[in-house]
Amino acid sequence: MILLTRRATFSASHYYWNPDWSEEQNQVVFGRCANRNGHGHNYTLEVTVTGPVSPLSGFVVDLKWLKDVIEREVLDVYDHRHLNHEVPEFATLIPTTENIAVSIWKRLEAPVTAAGGAQLSRIRVYETGDIFAEYRGE
Fold first, then answer.
1. One-character DSSP codes across the chain
2. Is the CB of residue 128 less than 8 Å from the CB of residue 134?
3. What digits encode the pLDDT tens for the residues 79-117?
C-alpha cells in the first residue's frame, strides 16, 4: 500500500464557546479564544489516501481529482468563513482544530470511497506551525 498526501490551505476565523457554560467558565477554559468576535488562522490541511498503485495509471488516486474534491467539499465551505456562523457543523460544535479535522474527514470520506481504489487514511489540520490535529477515522 502507498500513502499519498495532498496539501491545501484555507483561512478562517472562529471562537471557542460552550453554550452550556457561563461566560466566566468559557473565559477560564478558553481564554482569549472565547472572544465572540473571533480570531483567524491560516490553516494547512493534509489529506492522505491509501491504496494500491493502479497498473494502468501508476496512481493511487488522480491528484487533480483529489484536489477538486478537497476544493468542493472543504475549501469552498471553509475558506474565508467564520466557522461558527457560516459552516453548518459548527453551529453546534466548537470549531477546535480537533473538531475541524473530524469534520473534514466526514466531508471527504464518502467521495474518496465512492471513487474506488483508494481509502481516506488521515486528515491533518495545522492551526499554526506548532499545533496540528490528526484524525484517522474510527
1. -EEEEEEEEEEEEE----TTS-HHHHHHHHGGGG-TT-EEEEEEEEEEEEEPPPTTTS-SS-HHHHHHHHIIIIIHHHTTEEHHHHSGGGGSS---HHHHHHHHHHHHHHHHHHHSS-EEEEEEEESSSS-EEEE---
2. no
3. 999 999 999 999 999 999 999 999 999 999 999 999 878
**Alpha-carbon gap, residue 11 to 30, rounded angstroms:** 21
Largest CA-CA distance found in the chain, in angstroms, rounded: 60
Q: Which amino acid is at 96?
A: T
pTM, to two decimals: 0.95
What is the fold of 2-135?
Tetrahydropterin Synthase; Chain A (3.30.479)
The ranges assigned to domains in the chain are 2-135
Burial class (CB in 10 A: 0-12, 13-18, 19+), 50: middle
- The catalytic residues are 33, 80, 127
- The DSSP line for 8-35 is EEEEEEE----TTS-HHHHHHHHGGGG-
